[in-house]
Amino acid sequence: MTSKWQQAQERIQQILGLKTAPVGVFLEKEAGKGSEFSGWKLLKKHRYCQALMRARNGQPVVLEPDELSCPAAACAFGFRPLPGGLQSGRGLVGFGIVGKPETGATMFADMPHLQQGMLTRLALCPLAAAPRTPNVVVVEALVEQLMWLLLADLRAEGGTRRHGNTAVLQATCVDATVIPFLEDRLNFSYGCYGCREATDIGEEEAVLGFPAHKLEEILRNLEDLAEKAIPNSRAKKAYQRLEEEDNDAQCG
C-alpha cells in the first residue's frame, strides 16, 4: 500500500522534475524510542549535510551525537558546545570565510540552535520512506525548482512575503532544519562553504526546509501551480518572441 509520504514525494518529484528525493528529518528527543529506525544505516563520523546527501539519494540513515563530525552542526542540534576556535571566529578566518575574527564570532553568536541535550539523535530518509510524520522536510534542488516550492508556501500563507534567514554558514543544519523547526516556517538558503565542500550539491543547486505538517498544504498549492503557471513559465514563450523579433530585426 502506498503511503501518503510516498505519494507526496512522487508528486513533488514529478511536478518539479527533482532528480533526488525530498528528505524527511526526525529530531528525536527521547532515547530508546524510534524502533522504526532499527533497520536504517548508522552513520559513522558524518557531517549533517553528508547525512542529508545520503538520504536524498535514497538511503535511510541515523546520526547519533558522537558520530556528528561537524562541530558547528553539533552545536546547532544541541549535541556539544561550540569549540573555542569557532566561537571566537578565528576558525572561520583560518578557512578564509571571513577576514576578521569578530565577523565570525558574530555569525556564531547569532546562530539559531537547539538547547543542549534536547535531542538524542537524528534520523533522515527519503520522504517516501518516512514511517511517521517527520519534523522537517528538506529539499536540495535547482533554484528554479525551489522557487515553485517557495511560491506554493507563499500561497498557503495568503501571500505574505517569504523571508530567508542565513549567515551563508550551516545552510543545511541551521538554515534548512533548525530554523524551520524552531520558527515553524519555511526557510531557504543558497548553501554554504561546508555543504558545498563536503557533499555532492551542485553549483546550480540550493536548499530549503519546512515543517512537515505544512507539506499537505504546500503540495496542494504546488498542484495548482502545475496546472498553468509552471508549464507556462518553463515554456519561455515571451523570451522566444523576443528572440524572434531580434532575429527579424537582424535579417531586415
Written overview of the protein:
The chain is an alpha+beta fold and about 250 residues long. The protein has 2 domains: about 5-80 and about 115-250, no CATH class; about 80-110, no CATH class. The chain has 12 helices and 7 strands. The chain has helices at about 5-15, 50-55, 70-75, 85, 90-95, 100-110, 145-155, 170-185, 195-200, 215-225, 230-235, 235-250; strands at about 25-30, 40, 60-65, 120-125, 135-140, 185-190, 205-210. Strands 2-3-4-1-5-7-6 form a 7-stranded mixed sheet. Strand 2, helix 2 (about 50-55) and strand 3 (about 60-65) form a beta-alpha-beta unit. Helix 1 (about 5-15) packs parallel to helix 10 (about 215-225). The N and C termini lie far apart (about 60 Å). About 40% of the residues are buried. The model has no long low-confidence stretch (mean pLDDT about 95).
Summarize the structure.
With about 250 residues, the chain is α+β, with helices and mostly antiparallel strands.
